[in-house]
């Protein structure tokens, strides 16, 4: 070592950069015929070949990308029945274009985008789930590449302003259009085709089944289509059935002659059996003494934008392919007299969100984010997605349906989401959780309401108030949040406020 170098440099240890090895997806091969000869030949193609049984398939793994491509090509050429998954670098970028009229030809859109140097692998116009009517939403698959991510920079097409957003499947289980199996796609499926309508060995477009003929499921042989969400073999339904069995098995046995349980009469609760889950569920939030009506989980059909006089609508629909449903989605109505502009947000699969930045008087710019945090039985609180939204601006208010209950904000019990949110807020610098004192959400079978419509402040050192209106037009009460910019700054705001 050179003694002329400073002692600090001599003692400094340079750690080698760790290069993460790409994950190579496995193959699932049908072990038909002389499968031992198949394994012997496959090892000549891919020396790192390893296999073990997984259900009714032979699960095959290889060591690197080159062996994966060689083995995939050889299995396809020899006619072996198998399924696999695409390499990460081969997966197309899936986007949705919004802002064009519904009568725009998809091929015209494809030509315009390809003229900019992108390769469009697939394009289709999205349709309404019930009426099958075409909507002003176009689904595209862009071939992956070094410049493919620049598709999100598109803001105009045919002289019309558009939005290009990532396609999000949500919690929907992926089903193959070729074999009707789950958890893989048809692009890398080489199993025998099964018709989604009659379970025959052909594709749906070649099916001769009449409209009035009885369908047959390729998975359970029931009298329904294979893509029916209530199929007994559907992964979600099978999981619920197993959970119900375990609950009944492990639950306490009730004695046959047990005395009847005494019940305390409860006060009558509002009838929400006919509650509307559409645009009447508006949360009119008075932010900084100017009305900014805000919706969360709009349940509005994509492409349907209800207008309010003197307000501008910013709306993000929940997009699910091949059809869309009136579930989720967020929106913000901003008064025209307020200086405002839309704020782009990063992709957050676990949170539906819409963001607008406003500027009032001498106050610093303020980001208003309407958020709906998705929830399912097996999911965890999307902390990383929440941090992305929280870091979208120096001063922001994130408000909406968080699906998080905690005793700290007047709930009967803690939920996983509530505990995670409480811990997250306590660790975020400048964060403050704001909650009303009364229930904001009711369900027909709930004995007590829950406080799950919340707000999280980031560097908002002003006095505020929050209250719930007793106007039950859906299963959520409207919540009013007021910020007073005319008051003096709060030097040490608490992390939790339930005023």
TrEMBL record:
Location of the Pre-C2HC domain: 106-174
Compositionally biased region (Low complexity): 249-270
Domain of life of the native organism: Eukaryota
InterPro entries assigned: Endo/exonu/phosph_ase_sf, Endo/exonuclease/phosphatase, Pre_C2HC_dom
Compositional bias segments (type: Basic residues): 231-248
SUPFAM superfamilies registered for this protein in UniProt: DNase I-like (SSF56219)
Protein name: Nucleic-acid-binding protein from transposon X-element
């Amino acid at each position: 070592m050179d003694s002329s170098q400073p002692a600090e440099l001599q003692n400094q240890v340079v750690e080698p950069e760790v290069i993460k090895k790409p994950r190579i997806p496995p193959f699932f091969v049908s072990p038909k015929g002389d499968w031992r000869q198949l394994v012997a030949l496959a090892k000549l193609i891919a020396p790192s070949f390893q296999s073990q049984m997984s259900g009714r398939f032979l699960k095959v793994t290889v060591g690197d990308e080159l062996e994966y491509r060689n083995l995939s090509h050889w299995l396809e050429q020899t006619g072996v029945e198998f399924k696999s998954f695409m390499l990460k670098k081969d997966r197309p970028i899936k986007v949705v274009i919004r802002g064009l009229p519904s009568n725009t030809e998809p091929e015209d859109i494809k030509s315009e985008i390809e003229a900019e140097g992108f390769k469009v692998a697939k394009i289709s116009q999205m349709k309404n789930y019930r009426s099958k009517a075409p909507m002003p939403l176009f689904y595209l698959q862009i071939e992956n590449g070094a410049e493919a991510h620049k598709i999100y920079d598109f803001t105009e097409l045919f002289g019309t302003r558009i939005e290009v957003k990532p396609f999000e499947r949500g919690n929907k289980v992926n089903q193959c259009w070729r074999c009707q199996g789950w958890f893989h796609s048809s692009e890398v499926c080489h199993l025998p085709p099964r018709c989604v309508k009659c379970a025959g060995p052909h594709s749906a477009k070649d099916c001769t089944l009449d409209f009035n003929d009885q369908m047959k499921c390729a998975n359970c042989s029931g009298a329904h289509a294979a893509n029916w969400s209530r199929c007994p073999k559907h992964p979600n339904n099978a999981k619920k059935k197993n959970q119900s069995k375990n609950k009944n098995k492990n639950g306490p046995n009730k004695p046959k002659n047990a005395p009847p349980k005494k019940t305390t009469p409860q006060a009558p609760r509002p009838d929400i059996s006919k509650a509307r889950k559409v645009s009447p569920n508006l949360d009119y939030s008075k932010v900084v003494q100017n009305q900014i009506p805000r919706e969360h989980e709009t349940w509005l059909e994509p492409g349907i934008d209800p207008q309010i006089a003197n307000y501008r609508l910013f709306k993000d629909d929940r997009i699910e392919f091949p059809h869309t449903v009136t579930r989720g989605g967020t929106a913000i109505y901003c008064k025209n007299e307020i200086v405002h502009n839309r704020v782009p947000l990063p992709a957050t699969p676990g949170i539906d969100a819409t963001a607008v930045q406003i500027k009032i008087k001498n106050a610093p710019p303020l980001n208003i984010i309407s958020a709906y945090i998705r929830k399912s039985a097996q999911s965890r609180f999307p902390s990383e997605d929440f941090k992305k939204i929280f870091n979208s601006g120096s001063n922001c208010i994130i408000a909406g349906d968080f699906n998080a209950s905690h005793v700290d904000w007047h709930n009967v019990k803690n939920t996983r989401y509530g505990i995670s949110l409480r811990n997250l807020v306590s660790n975020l610098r400048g964060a403050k959780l704001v909650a009303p004192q009364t229930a904001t959400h009711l369900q027909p079978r709930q004995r007590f309401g829950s406080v799950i419509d919340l707000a999280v402040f980031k560097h908002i050192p002003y006095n505020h108030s929050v209250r719930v209106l007793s106007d039950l037009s859906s299963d959520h009460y409207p919540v009013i949040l007021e910020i007073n910019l005319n008051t003096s700054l709060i030097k040490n705001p608490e992390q939790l406020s339930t005023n």
